[in-house]
């Protein structure tokens, strides 16, 4: 049967009328104490003069200015994306998807563009129940929607009796409470089964039939979402070439239904030896992609369909060689080059790991490796980080879903945006592990609130920052990595609380002491709105709850997110960044030339 690797549903930023929701890919940047310019943010690199205002200790003061003339990067409007666990198919939730259609459809009306991607070979389960959480799920997912990934597997394609009817097919299915209760029990049992599979590295098939595909597409289409479908690359002929027979039947079936789908082939192909006992090199996968492109061109419906890949794993030496071989053969056939990154093994993670700047910087090195290869063989090709999470192996309770994990998440967003990665797909919105954004009762976790603020405040234009201050002298042989990370973007055009030309800063302070930042240059003497996120409760960095400007954040009810109220700071006031915190600052009415126009 044909593996369907997942499926991403992506959405554009919500306007102010959109219900508060999640989704924000924050990006921690870099800001060192001392004359410093971000190497990844080209622009005017002249250092700011270091001044010591009366009453402020020089060692704690940092001067910050932003180049407002032109952006250094422009990322996709759909930059922040999310993965949705495929177990909605595996453990029976597919029949309940239509419960969510209405909320998703209402959201889609406020979105300009939504993408989706299907990919995968490993199957993870979801212990979430849509019982009491259906309304809450619609609000949370709807507010954050950019890309959502679902993994699945497709079986024999036969004609289905499900027709996509805009008037009838989009009605909300009604299910008795007892059905939802039974489904919750079934999901809990399947959760244990799939956990065992994950740790034993043996996986059962997840079959997506024609009827299942119809349900998926019906849900996506009625919700205004675009589906990207990843075919199974593990089906091999004796000569190790891709066996496309089952994929062709799927393509023909989808075309007969006039389904608007984009495509992908396989997932982490560099690991196929462990899955099928035989390896596939980059050039062979390139030939497979060329074959897939030829199949798409033979089918009128998909002659211009988008194709993405190869979705490789962490770019070690052998994986880089794989990517080079792939791009030499098929670089011109894909619309974006994709790869994945997970920071640490969730089975051995500690809270102090999330505070290590050396760990935070590992992604930057990977980005450079991927960009070097892509620019060599396919200059100008867009790059997507199609799978990312703080930890692998499903994460660790009280760590991967805690406030501390937000440092890695915000760092990821900042590095990717500043270095020109077009799209990032977060693993995951919900699943059986601990890397998700909402808990089993659909209560938002800290990374959800980070994502929501990012979605509300951050626009696609990235600005260069200039920082000056005092830096302690490094000890011999030791490199000082900055623990204060700052990024700047034009404020989102979709946030009507701020006029065009405003700028949003987002900051991570990994120091165990507070830091003071004085806005200079074009930012001097402007009114600032502060959005300071801190852990809430006695658990500190392990907390699964957060407070915004001192007020705890929680759902008002199943259908309502709280208002995210900023704290206004008077013009010219020094920003005081508490230790071990993340924050956003909207500098109002800057009238930045780079931010006036879309």
UniProtKB/TrEMBL annotation:
**InterPro entries assigned:** GH (IPR017853), Glyco_hydro_79 (IPR005199)
Gene Ontology cellular-component terms for this entry are: extracellular matrix; extracellular space; membrane
Question: Its Gene Ontology biological processes?
Answer: extracellular matrix organization
The protein's matches in Gene3D superfamilies, at most eight in alphabetical order, are given as: Glycosidases (3.20.20.80)
Q: Which GO terms describe its molecular function?
A: hydrolase activity, acting on glycosyl bonds
Q: Which family does it belong to?
A: Belongs to the glycosyl hydrolase 79 family.
Protein known as: HPSE2 protein
């Amino acid at each position: 049967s044909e593996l369907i690797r997942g499926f991403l549903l992506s959405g554009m930023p919500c306007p102010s009328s959109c219900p508060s929701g999640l989704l924000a890919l924050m990006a921690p940047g870099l800001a060192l104490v001392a004359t410093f310019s971000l190497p990844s943010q080209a622009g005017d690199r002249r250092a700011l003069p270091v001044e010591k205002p009366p009453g402020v200790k020089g060692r704690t003061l940092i001067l910050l200015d932003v180049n407002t003339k032109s952006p250094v990067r422009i990322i996709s409007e759909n930059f922040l994306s999310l993965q949705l666990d495929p177990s909605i198919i595996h453990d029976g939730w597919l029949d309940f998807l239509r419960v969510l259609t209405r909320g998703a459809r209402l959201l889609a009306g406020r979105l300009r563009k939504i993408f989706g991607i299907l990919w995968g070979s490993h199957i993870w389960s979801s212990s979430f129940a849509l019982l009491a959480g259906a309304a809450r799920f619609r609000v949370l997912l709807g507010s954050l929607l950019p890309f959502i990934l679902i993994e699945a597997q497709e079986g024999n394609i036969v004609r289905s009796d499900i027709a996509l009817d805009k008037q009838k097919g989009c009605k909300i299915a009604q299910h008795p409470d007892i059905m939802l209760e039974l489904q919750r029990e079934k999901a809990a049992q399947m959760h244990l089964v799939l956990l065992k599979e994950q740790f034993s590295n043996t996986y059962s098939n997840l079959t997506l039939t024609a009827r299942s595909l119809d349900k998926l597409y019906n849900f996506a289409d009625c919700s205004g979402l675009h589906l990207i479908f990843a075919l199974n690359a593990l089906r091999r002929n004796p000569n190790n070439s891709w066996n496309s027979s089952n994929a062709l039947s799927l393509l023909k079936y989808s075309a007969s239904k006039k389904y608007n789908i984009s495509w992908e082939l396989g997932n982490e192909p560099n690991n196929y030896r462990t899955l099928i006992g035989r390896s596939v090199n980059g050039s062979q996968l390139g030939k497979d992609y060329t074959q897939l492109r030829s199949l798409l061109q033979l089918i009128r419906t998909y002659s211009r369909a988008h194709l993405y890949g190869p979705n490789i794993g962490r770019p070690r030496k052998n994986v880089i060689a794989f990517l080079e071989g792939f791009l030499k053969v098929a670089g011109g056939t894909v619309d974006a080059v994709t790869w994945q990154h997970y920071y640490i093994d969730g089975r051995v993670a500690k809270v102090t790991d999330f505070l290590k700047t050396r760990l935070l910087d590992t992604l930057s090195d990977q980005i450079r490796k991927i960009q070097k290869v892509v620019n060599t063989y396919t200059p100008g090709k867009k790059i997507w980080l199609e799978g990312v999470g703080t930890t692998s192996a499903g994460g660790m309770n009280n760590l991967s879903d805690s406030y501390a994990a937000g440092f890695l998440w915000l760092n990821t967003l900042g590095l990717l945006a500043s270095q020109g990665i077009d799209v990032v797909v977060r693993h995951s919105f919900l699943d059986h592990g601990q890397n998700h954004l909402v808990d089993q009762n659909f209560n938002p976790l800290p990374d959800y609130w980070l994502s929501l603020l990012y979605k509300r405040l951050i626009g696609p234009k990235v600005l260069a920052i200039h920082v000056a201050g005092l830096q302690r002298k490094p000890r011999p042989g030791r490199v000082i990595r900055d623990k204060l990370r700052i990024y700047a973007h034009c404020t989102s055009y979709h946030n009507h609380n701020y006029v065009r030309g405003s700028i949003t800063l987002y900051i991570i302070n990994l120091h165990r002491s507070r830091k003071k930042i004085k806005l200079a240059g074009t930012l001097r003497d402007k009114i600032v709105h502060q959005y300071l996120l801190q852990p809430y409760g006695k658990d500190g960095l392990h907390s699964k709850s957060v407070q915004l400007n001192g007020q705890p954040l929680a759902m008002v009810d199943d259908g309502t997110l709280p208002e995210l109220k900023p704290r206004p700071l008077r013009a010219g006031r020094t920003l005081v960044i508490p230790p071990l915190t993340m924050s956003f600052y909207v500098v109002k009415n800057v009238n930045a030339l780079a931010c006036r126009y879309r």
